[in-house]
């Protein structure tokens, strides 16, 4: 029996338009050189659960890098922390300036709420 052919043909959609709040490659801190520069030259703010490095860049938008080791927890816990950090970063009001932000999670990060993560990020970003 032949399959029915749909008269409606879907065109592929630009993922950035389908999900305007997602983090694209341009929003992520990915290059080893940029990560090392942020670690060495960036402003460091230490909290009991997180260490945040921030450095201005020449881009019109900020970039976020995350480091969550296995010491923090299993894959489910690490992914939850990364999702919360990305969302807290996305909600920052000072995202218009270009910065490289690198967040290193410590084992205590599993108890942090997204609101507390946002406060930590805001305190760090206001000073850079």
Provide a descriptive summary of the structure in words.
The model has no long low-confidence stretch (mean pLDDT 85). The protein is an alpha+beta fold and 128 residues long. It has 4 helices and 4 strands. It has a 4-stranded mixed sheet, with helices on both faces. The protein is 34% helix and 19% strand. The radius of gyration is 18 Å and the shape is globular. The termini are far apart.
* Total E-strand runs: 4
Structural class: alpha+beta
Number of helices: 4
- The largest sheet has its strands arranged as 1-2-4-3
Strand content: 15-25%
What pattern of helices and strands is seen along the backbone?
Answer: HHEEEHEH
Distance between the termini: 66 Å
Spatial extent as radius of gyration:
18 Å
Query: Quick one: biggest sheet?
Result: 4 strands, mixed
- Tell me the overall shape: globular
Low-confidence stretches: none
Round the mean pLDDT to the nearest integer and report it. 85
**Overall helicity:** 25-40%
Short descriptors:
single chain; 128 residues; alpha+beta; 4-stranded mixed β-sheet; 4 helices; globular
Give a short synopsis of this structure:
This protein is an alpha+beta fold.
Helices and strands in order:
Blueprint: H1 15-18, H2 32-41, E1 43-46, E2 50-56, E3 63-68, H3 75-90, E4 99-105, H4 114-126
Parallel strand pairs: 3-4
Antiparallel strand pairs: 1-2, 2-4
